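Example record

The entry below shows one chain as it appears in the dataset: sequence first, then structure tokens.
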Amino acid sequence: MLETALKGSPRYWGWLVLLLIIMGIGGAAWYVQLDQGLQVTGLNRDVSWGFYIAQLTYMVGVAAAAVMLVLPYYFHHYKAFKKMIILAEFQAIGAIIICIGSIVVDLGQPQRMLNVLLYPTPNSVLFWDMVVLNGYLFLNLIIGWVTLQSQRNNMLPPKWVKPLIYLSIVWAVSIHTVTAFLYAGLPGRHLWLTAIMAPRFLASAFCAGPAILLLVAFILEKLTDFRVGEEAKKAVAKIVTYAMCINVFFFLCEIFTGFYSQIPGHMHPMMFLFGFEHGNYVAVLMWIATFLAFLSLALLIPPKLRENHKILPWALAALVVATYIDKGIGLLVGGFTPNVFEGFTFYAPTMPEILITAAVYASGIFAITILYKVALTVQKETS
């Protein structure tokens, strides 16, 4: 089937070349980082996780979101998701590639990854993060490819795939739970020290991931003759709406707990994030995220607005930006600021970090483009 990715329009090849150029520029920036070390980044003694780990945190959620379509399709036989299911599985593969790439560049020296394999430490959350990320990548690759191959041959997928599908549902929840435990397991970081960190991660994942998938479906419908179906779009939009409501509710719970209890350790990171202490660029971003989060809810909750295809993409885009700021740079910087000595050390990503991150995203999007090209070609042949 892979040969179908070698045939495409000039627009398809132009897109791939653009991604390769971004990867090349980011690769050059990574070479500089390998040569000079992490001093070319904005990381420092007080802020040891930054832009790279922010991408890991967000994209793990995007990967895990495939379960929101896999579960109703395979458990409840909801056939409206038939055309979207393969897109969700392939999106998860690209998202995991971005996650793994973000970890590699964050390590400074990629050979350090071998330490996880050569000296495995099961009591470390990081060890389990490696296990679940790689496991989920291979699960989706096998399930997606075998299912697509069966579809091309007008056959039902082999029976041995079904246990893997059920396993992938549990695995999807585990990858984001383990990532949340990476944060919640650090007792010195008050913003992260909350029992609902994992539920917060899952809620944001289950709204942002399907929102991105639906936006991609809209773009594919614009550029190709692929159609996911109105019922599928409505169902995904509903899932996104409910998950976003829960996500905002969890965030407000954190605000209430912090300020009603008057515990300084819980209040100060939030006051910093919203600019009440040491105003900074993160505060501007967080207010933008807050506005976009409530705007997206205002556009998604009323069914008339949610089912309007001129409004829905804007609502989804607002939701994606809001969750990206909150779960990405906001969560990271807020967790490290103030530091354990109540000091304020500002962090901002440098140009090399941004270029390297762009290259990591380009590599994931490159993989998704190839996989989507194969999937759409097969669906066109068999329709």
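Notes for this example: The chain has a mean pLDDT of 88. The radius of gyration is 21 Å.
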